[in-house]
Amino acid sequence: MQPINLRSFNQKVRHHKKAFKKYLSKVEKNPPKNINAIVDKVNTEVWQEIDCITCANCCKKMTPTFTTKDIKSIAIHFDMTPKEVKEKWLHQDKKNGDWINVNQPCQFLNLESNMCSIYEVRPADCSGFPHLKKKKVTDYIHVHQQNIEYCPATFKMVEKWMTAMPK
Fold first, then answer.
1. pLDDT at res. 136
2. 97, part of any domain
C-alpha cells in the first residue's frame, strides 16, 4: 500500500472530475442489476490499496455533520456540556440547520499523525465515511459525486466501477 500523495490526487481529480460525475449520474439513473455485488467486490479492492491515515484529506478539507448524540458523546468525553462543545468548536449551518465545524482542518485531527484525537467518540458521519458500501448504493451517488474531490478511496472506487460497470 502506497502513501497517498495529495498533490498527485488533486491533479487526477482536476483531470477526471467531470467524467466521473457524469458517469455517476448515469449509474444513478440506470444502475446495473448486479450493482451490489460489484460494489462489494470493489469495496474490498479499494481498501487493499488505500490507507486513510496517510491522507486524512476528509478531516483537512471537509466537515462532518454533528448529530445531537455526537455532541453529547464529545461533551462527555471532554467533561463539558453540549452547549460548551457547540460554542467552542461548532456552528449551525444557516442553510440546513446542521451543526458543523467552525474550522478546517478538523480541530480533533492530530496533524502530525493524521489520527483522530476523539476516535472512540467521533461523529457517526466520520465513522461511516466515505460511505462506499451502503445498502442502497444509488441513494449515495450524490455523496460520491461530492466526495471524489476530497477522498482518494471514493475516487478509486469510481475508477474501479467504471471498469466493472461501463456506461
1. 81
2. yes
